[in-house]
Amino acid sequence: MIEVTGSLKRRLAVWLLVTVTGLGALLMIEARVSSHRAAERAYDSQLEAAALTIAEAVQWQQGEPLIEVPAAALQILATRHQERVFYAVLDADGAPVSTNLPFTLEPGWRERAADAPLALTARLDGEAWRLYGREVDSAGWVSQEPVQVWVGHTRAGRMALADELFERTLTRFVAMVLLAGVLMALALRVALGPMRRLRRVLRRRDADDMRPLDARVPEEMRELAQTLDHLFARQRQSREALLRFTADASHQLKTPLAGLQSVSELALTSEDPAEWRAALAAVHEGAGRTSRLAGQLLSLARLRHLGEAEAVAPLDLAAVLRETVLDWAEREAARDHDLGLAPLPAGPVWVRAEGWAIRELLGNLIDNALRYTPPGSVITLGLEVLEGREGRGEVALFVEDDGPGVPAKARERLLQPFERGGRQDTEGSGLGLSIVDSIARRLDGRLSLGARESHGLRVRLSLPLCDPEEAP
After folding, report:
1. Whose CB has fewer CB within 10 Å in the chain, the N or C terminal residue?
2. How far, in Å, CA of 221 to CA of 194, rounded?
3. Are the folds of 9-163 and 219-304 the same?
């Protein structure tokens, strides 16, 4: 039964969406960080340019630095966000030459700025500030004393610029995501195109068309296409086997029915009661053979179309074998043969099998041995407990006789329906070993045919033993 567990297209779309969302989140984090970094660099460059402009305007008069802040420096610091801008020029002792800072610079900052230009972020009077300071020398004048130039402004402009850059990036990203969604839908449609084409090819096939697929598929669908081809090949073989079986069965049934019809027609043309009685006896015997043939055909058809064996209770194979041999030994068909049992194991031999299947298998093996061996032949059944595959125990059920046997080349065909090993001098139908083979396959056993040590035939079936703890 087919159970639908979602859409492959939806599953692919969800995974792609999760992937794109994860990558998009990382990109947005990177874009946010990059926006702040770019805004910091841009505004720090303004602070540096303003500081250099103010430093160039420093003049010395009577050994004292004088400064008139040029308008260009203030224009550099001016932005459309109307930030609060401050500057300070300090002499070598740290005394202000010119300043509008509302706070005092810390000594540590001045010491660091004396070594190298310094840019830092500080929170003063409850507000975040960005400050830039550097020390410059007035080279070329009589008095050479260093002065420090500090400029600073609030961070509103920086944050606004970072937000603006991020919003632009976000807008482009959203547009790209929408475009990627459209392209993803088209890509999924194109990628799943081979599956739709394969589906159309399969729907156009006739019910009895078992030819290999004639379709072009991508590498990912190669295994699926090969599996379908193997399925079609098995179906084709099964169909051909069914047709052969039906033709053979029709032929096998037609022959005895034609004989019955001929005997009855001859009896109808005669007025001799003795001929009528002989004809009735022949019809009775032929009807019995035909009934047995029909029964074997039904058994073989049932075995080949039964589902897989479900869990069954453990079965004592030794007990079933003993009962079956005793039953057959009392029948008329076994009167002229020596039918017996080889020594059996002392205790039960447990296997997982259906009782009717084991009895059907034993019945066909015994019936074959009785039909294809001359009177007086010895037919022996027995069990051998062996060390099986993968450490699991096995039991081998065997049936052997001292009859004429079967040539090695003919043994290979004995498991096929209506095959009698080249023997035409018996009343057998050639279905017994086919039924046995079908039962062996159903029980997960291994069937083998071989020659007896001196002469005759030995049929051997190996079955896995059941765990003793599971036995009743």
Report:
1. N
2. 8
3. no
In 3-state terms, what secondary structure has residue 23?
helix
Which residues contact residue 434 at a Cβ distance below 8 angstroms, ignoring those fewer than 6 apart?
Answer: 300, 415, 416, 417, 419
- Domain 219-304 CATH (choose: 3.30.360.10, 3.40.50.620, 1.25.40.10, 1.10.287.130): 1.10.287.130
Q: Is the domain 9-163 a CATH 3.40.50.2000 member?
A: no
In percent, the amount of the chain with pLDDT more than 70 equals 82
Q: Given strand 96-99, what is the order of strands in its sheet? A: 96-99, 85-90, 147-154, 127-136, 118-124
pLDDT of 420 higher than 70: no
Domain layout of the chain by residue ranges: 9-163, 219-304, 306-470
pLDDT of residue 323: 92
pLDDT of residue 70: 73
Question: What's the rounded mean pLDDT across residues 324-340?
Answer: 89
Q: How many CB atoms lie within 10 A of CB 254?
A: 10
- What DSSP string describes 248-315? HHHHHHHHHHHHHHHHHHHHHH---HHHHHHHHHHHHHHHHHHHHHHHHHHHHHHHHH--------EE
Confidence label for 381 from pLDDT (cuts 50, 70 and 90)? very high
Tell me phi and psi for residue 322, to 5 degrees. -65, -45
Tokens, residue 102 = 């509302």
- Residue 33 amino acid letter: V
pLDDT value for 310: 54
- pTM for this structure? 0.48
Q: Closest by alpha carbon to 195, among 229, 214, 166, 221? A: 221
Q: b or e along 241-250 (b: 16 or more beta carbons within 10 Å of the residue's beta carbon)? A: eeeebeebbe
List, in sequence order, the alpha helices (H) in 70-192: 71-77, 107-115, 156-191
Pair of tokens at residue 227: 């599996």
Which two three-digit tokens encode residue 296? 């074997």
Alpha carbons within 13 angstroms on the beta-carbon side of residue 157 total 21
How many angstroms separate the CA atoms of 244 and 239, rounded? 9
Confidence of residue 63 (pLDDT cuts 50, 70, 90): low
Q: Which helix (H) or strand (E) holds 100?
A: none
> Is CATH 3.40.50.2300 correct for 306-470?
no
Distances (CA, A) of 398 to 294, 370, 383, 402: 27, 15, 6, 13
- Nearest to 81, CA basis, from 153, 157, 164: 157
140 pLDDT band, cuts 50/70/90, is: very low
